[in-house]
Design a protein that fits this description.
Layout lengths: L26 E4 L4 E4 L5 E2 L54 H18 L12 H12 L3 H16 L8 H15 L6 H8 L3 H14 L9 H11 L4 H15 L9 H15 L6 H8 L3 H28 L1
Antiparallel strand pairs: 1-2, 2-3
Length: 323
C-alpha cells in the first residue's frame, strides 16, 4: 500500500492522466481517507473506491474454509440439540392436516428430539425444571439475561457438588438467583427473591449459605449505592436527595451502632430522612413498599439514625459555643 504523501506516478511506470484543472500529472494517494488528490491544486478524484473489498476468510488447519461450524451463539446452560421449532402432531408448517402415517413420523421425530435434549451432555440442568423456574423468576424481577445465565451456571455447579440434597426446588432456584444478583451487583433483596420463587425466606437463606460455602465461587455483597440508585429512581427523587443520601452513607459507615443494620433497610431510612429534609415528602408506606421492608422497621431505623446523629451533633455545638 502506498504511504501518505507518496506520489502515484512513482508507483507505476505509466504516468497518470493530467488534472483537468491545473493539468498536473502528480497525484497523491491518501490511504487513510481512501482518496487520490492532485498534488498541485488539491482536486480530489473519484476514481478510487471508497470501500475496499473485504479480506478473504482465513483458513485454519483442518478446515476447508467453507465456514462450517459457525452458528448462532448459544448461552451457557442452553440446550444445543433442540430443533428450534415446536412440532405439532396434527398439522404441518403450512397449517394443513397431516395424514395418519405423517403423524407417526412427526411423533417419532418429536420423541427423538426430546430424548436428545434430555441427555446429560449439557449438565444436570437440562433434566430438571430449574431452567423454567429461573426464567420465570428472572422475568418477574426484571433481571438481565446474563444474570439468569449466571444463575444457571451456579445451579449446575452446585448440583454437581451435591449441595441441593434435601433442599426444595424453589429454595435452590432462589438461592442461585440471589447469588447471581450479588455477583453482578443487582440490587435485589433476599425477601424479594424468596417471594418471587414461592419459598420461605429462611429456606432460601440457608440454601444460599450452603451454595456460598460449597461452590467455591466469589459472591460479594451488593453495595448500598446500588440500592440507593434503585430506590431513588422508583420514588422519583431529585439528584440532590441522592447526593445527600450518599453523604449520609459515608457518615453511617464509620458509626459502630449503624454497622449492624441491613443495607437496604439503612438506605431506605436515609432516603426517607433526606426526602423530608429537602421537602420532597414521601410517606413511610411508599418507601417501605419500594424497599421491601416493613413500616415498623423503617420507623425504628429512622429513629435510630436520628438519635445517633443528634448525639454526635451535641459535642460539636458545645465545642463551637466554647470557642
Amino acid at each position: 500500500m502506498t504511504e501518505p504523501g507518496k506520489e502515484e506516478s512513482h508507483r507505476s511506470g505509466v504516468d497518470p492522466p493530467s488534472c483537468p484543472m491545473c493539468k498536473s500529472t502528480h497525484r497523491i494517494v491518501d490511504p487513510i481517507r481512501s482518496e487520490t488528490h492532485c498534488a498541485e491544486c488539491g482536486l480530489v478524484f473519484d476514481e478510487t473506491t471508497i470501500l475496499a473489498t473485504p479480506p478473504p476468510p482465513t483458513e485454519t488447519p483442518g478446515s476447508d474454509g467453507s465456514g462450517r461450524g459457525i452458528g448462532p451463539f448459544v448461552r451457557p446452560g442452553a440446550t444445543k440439540r433442540s430443533l428450534g421449532s415446536t412440532l405439532s402432531l396434527t398439522r404441518d408448517g403450512q397449517g394443513k392436516r397431516l395424514d395418519w402415517h405423517r403423524r407417526y413420523e412427526f411423533q417419532h421425530l418429536k420423541r427423538v428430539m426430546l430424548r436428545q435434549t434430555s441427555r446429560t451432555v449439557d449438565g444436570p440442568l437440562d433434566r430438571t425444571p430449574a431452567r423454567g423456574e429461573m426464567q420465570l423468576g428472572g422475568e418477574a424481577m426484571g433481571l438481565p439475561a446474563v444474570v439468569v445465565a449466571e444463575a444457571e451456571g451456579i445451579y449446575r455447579e452446585a448440583k454437581l457438588r451435591g449441595l441441593f440434597r434435601g433442599r426444595s426446588l424453589p429454595a435452590s432456584v432462589g438461592a442461585c438467583l440471589y447469588a447471581a444478583c450479588r455477583r453482578y451487583s443487582v440490587p435485589r433483596t433476599l425477601g424479594e427473591v424468596a417471594a418471587t420463587v414461592g419459598a420461605k425466606r429462611s429456606e432460601v437463606g440457608r440454601t444460599f449459605k450452603v451454595v456460598q460455602r460449597g461452590s467455591g465461587l466469589s459472591i460479594p455483597g451488593v453495595g448500598t449505592k446500588a440500592f440507593l440508585a434503585r430506590y431513588a429512581q422508583e420514588l422519583a427523587l431529585s439528584p440532590r436527595v441522592r447526593t445527600t443520601v450518599e453523604t449520609m452513607l459515608d457518615q453511617a459507615r464509620d458509626d459502630p451502632e449503624l454497622s449492624g443494620l441491613s443495607p437496604h433497610g439503612l438506605v431506605a431510612a436515609l432516603v426517607y430522612l433526606a426526602a423530608e429534609q429537602h421537602g420532597e415528602h414521601r410517606s413511610r408506606a411508599q418507601v417501605a413498599r419500594v424497599s421491601s421492608v416493613t413500616e415498623v422497621t423503617l420507623r425504628s431505623t429512622s429513629r435510630l439514625v436520628e438519635k445517633v446523629w443528634k448525639r454526635d451533633a451535641v459535642p460539636r455545638s458545645d465545642e463551637a459555643r466554647s470557642t
